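Ops channel
N.P.: pipeline sanity check, posting one input/output pair.
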């Protein structure tokens, strides 16, 4: 019985520690972001995904003009669109714009202990190695997502045509009555 009481008391103490974990401080989160080189990672990621943005722009123009091969003028438009998408992406993740967002999210989600654990990990050689591969992971992820997105848009386009046919048939039926 005494053992059971001690176990219950120990469990209560442990769960209390988790429930009241100290929040991460601004200084801790800023240190984590510095160790993670988030600013550089974001810039590298944008550079890594440029080919996917080019491909996306090309596919958008292909779908717009409904041709598999773009002529030189259409290719120029696709290149301009890719440049605009790239510049917009750079603006969207500009460090001065996104740093406050990262600070808030990390402070809201992680405890001081969790932030410190990340600092310790990302300060290690293996942590730095993982961080250096992050832009490649983003690039490969975007390749997969782009192909899935294109399929989804094509399917939605086919679905929309089908719905339009049904609506036209309903409209025609209503006009004949």
């Amino acid at each position: 019985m005494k053992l059971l009481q001690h176990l219950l008391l120990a469990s209560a103490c442990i769960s209390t520690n988790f429930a009241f974990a100290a929040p991460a401080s601004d200084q801790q989160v800023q240190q984590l972001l510095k160790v993670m080189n988030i600013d550089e990672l974001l810039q590298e990621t944008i550079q890594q995904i440029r080919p996917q943005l080019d491909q996306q722009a090309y596919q958008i123009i292909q779908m717009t003009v409904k041709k598999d091969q773009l002529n030189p003028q259409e290719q120029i438009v696709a290149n301009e669109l890719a440049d605009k998408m790239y510049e917009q992406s750079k603006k969207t993740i500009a460090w001065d714009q996104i740093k406050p967002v990262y600070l808030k999210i990390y402070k809201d989600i992680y405890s001081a202990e969790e932030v410190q654990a990340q600092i310790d990990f990302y300060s290690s050689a293996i942590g730095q190695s993982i961080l250096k591969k992050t832009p490649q992971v983003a690039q490969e992820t975007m390749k997969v997502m782009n192909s899935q997105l294109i399929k989804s848009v094509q399917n939605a386009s086919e679905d929309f045509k089908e719905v339009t046919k049904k609506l036209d048939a309903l409209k025609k039926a209503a006009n004949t009555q």
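N.P.: looks fine end to end. Residues 32 and 119 are 5 Å apart (CA to CA).
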